[in-house]
């Protein structure tokens, strides 16, 4: 069999990235391209489902299939793609506004279904595309045009939600820690089941609080916590809560995860009308 050689050039497009100079999304794009190359996945086997927001432009800058979906709908489209073609590497990507506001219910239900898709959220704790409003992950007291006297609400905690909803791969990265982010995305793609990679990706134009320096000062890197066990969901929940969600690394992975689509062995191999939708009862008993 011929050896496949995939290079970074294969994943580049001619379109110039539109993001502001210094935007964290550049780092996420670079890490995703590198992860795909290192895994030797060919571009025609990859689909990027991108949400609405600055981060949603990411699909335009990767030479793979790209669907730019309506606001908050990356999860159902990604799930549909995976069910229709299980050989495809399906990557959903979007921002904290897209995924954790209008897309929240899809996010929660995708995790409990556990399809084999990777979800990268570029979390900058603000709405960047619409020029700087408070988002679901903005901190209490955060002052923006939409909350000039400070945000009255508590922020959404995506990692804690993911752990509670039954996600089988939960990781958090930082766009300027490329080495770790590439590893986390590779692990997410290789994982059999739903994989969340929430990534702190600073908005240098509108978020003057959660800057690169701020994250560097506050993040706890799990690679430097020697006794951390990423296979203990309850311990992970406690650790993340104790550190106010400011943790990077592989937070949790279930070793024996069975993806949703594998529980329906007859699905996705023939025309829809001819498909056998009876579940595999043995696999239904497992997670
Ligand atoms: Fe990035 Fe913020 Fe500029 Fe959008 S507004 S491209 S999130 S720096
Ligand atoms: Mg945002």
From TrEMBL:
Superkingdom of the organism of origin: Bacteria
Keyword Iron-sulfur among record annotations: yes
Listed cofactors: Mg(2+); [4Fe-4S] cluster; thiamine diphosphate
Classification via CDD domains: TPP_OGFOR
Parts forming coiled coils: none
GO MF: iron-sulfur cluster binding; metal ion binding; oxidoreductase activity, acting on the aldehyde or oxo group of donors, iron-sulfur protein as acceptor; thiamine pyrophosphate binding
Residues covered by the Pyruvate ferredoxin oxidoreductase beta subunit C-terminal domain: 203-267
All residue ranges annotated as the Thiamine pyrophosphate enzyme TPP-binding domain in the record: 52-198
Gene Ontology biological process terms in this record: cellular respiration
Keyword Magnesium (UniProt): yes
Keywords: Iron, Iron-sulfur, Magnesium, Metal-binding, Oxidoreductase, Thiamine pyrophosphate
One Pfam entry name: PFO_beta_C
Name of protein: 2-oxoacid:ferredoxin oxidoreductase subunit beta
Organism listed in the record: Caldinitratiruptor microaerophilus
Species lineage: Bacteria, Bacillati, Bacillota, Clostridia, Eubacteriales
